Amino acid sequence: MPRTRSILVHGLGITLRRLPAFLWTYAFSLALALVFCYPLKIQLSNLLDRSLAAQRLSSGFDLGTAATAAMRLHEGAAGQASSITSHGSVPTYLLAYFLLVPGTLFCYITRTHARLSTLLRQGILHFWRFVRITVLTLLAAAFVLVPLMMLQTRWAEFVDDRFAARPAWLLTLGGMFIVLLAASLLRLYFDLVEAYTVQMGTEHRPNAKPDRRVRRTLRPAFRLLRDHLFRAWLVFLLLAALGAAGAFFSARMAMHMLAQPRAWSMFLVAQLGILLMLFTRFWQRGAEASLVLQNPLAFLRETSTIPFVAKTTAPVTPALQIVSEHPQHVEMIYNPDPLTPLYPAPLSPDNPLMETTFVETAPAADPIPNPEPAAPSLDEPDPGVFHHDPKKP
Description:
The protein has about 400 residues and is mostly helical. The chain has one domain (about 5-305). It is built from 13 helices and three strands. The protein has helices at about 5-15, 20-50, 55-60, 65-75, 75-110, 115-125, 125-160, 165-200, 220-225, 230-255, 265-295, 300-305, 385, and strands at about 320-325, 330-335, 360. Helix 7 (about 125-160) runs antiparallel to helix 8 (about 165-200) and helix 9 (about 220-225) crosses helix 10 (about 230-255).
């Protein structure tokens, strides 16, 4: 039985080993924030640079003055520019999400180096698959979360009619906590669907094309969540709470720094909270990738464990061939079939796959001829050679 790893610790190791994916995502997020906040900065400068009321914001941060400035931003041309900025930021953020998240999951699952080129290339390959998963997530949220939110509204009205002060606040907060638990469970399920989709994309179908069928990952992701509900959900909630706590405390510290003449310290504290919240999200992805690696898709597991056996109609090559040219010299040529191991040993006479062929060949011609003539081959000596005739001198 394979050893079960802690997805919390293993997920942290995966996230740290692929740290460039997190850093590139933060860099893109910071660049988008600066680009889309620049028009807002110009609008606030036009509104507050020549106003004495701006001293209340720079010296003490008066909430009334800040609310009035926010209301003035939505009037006239400034309001139109702000609306264009807010509407343009959402599609740009979604585009960056659909490009960076698939590449990050690919690097987590395949242990590939998280280079920017790899992230963008895999994001382009998985773009439409993640769009379909996002549509499925919105549909599931509409069927699950909308009724729960309606029940939460009814519950809040019920609590307001019968309770007051602290008990009412705790009961209302309990209803909101149930809705957040359902939303986190739904988010965890579709995170597993995304991880399985990336893992399935590493394999190819019989037509040599990558498998893009997202529907094949819905049931395995549900089974994985059902079998490992406690530890997967607990790790997800723990990391989410850690990120939310970091963002809360950094925002609180940044609010206390609003009245300072220098804004860089407040900016660094706020960015520290954003970094912590973003890192815990990547940690969640690493834990989910660890869970998926320990429980791969069933058909991918079967493909990786069953050896491939080629079907061929070619005749079987003899396992052993003995060529005899001289009585004292035997040359053995061993040609085994790499796909068919020979048991018992190849030289054993009990081996049914062994065929022995004796090939008698004529002796090769001598390259150096004999200088003396060959002796005649006669059955008996010639009598004319050894008989002496007395009549002849």
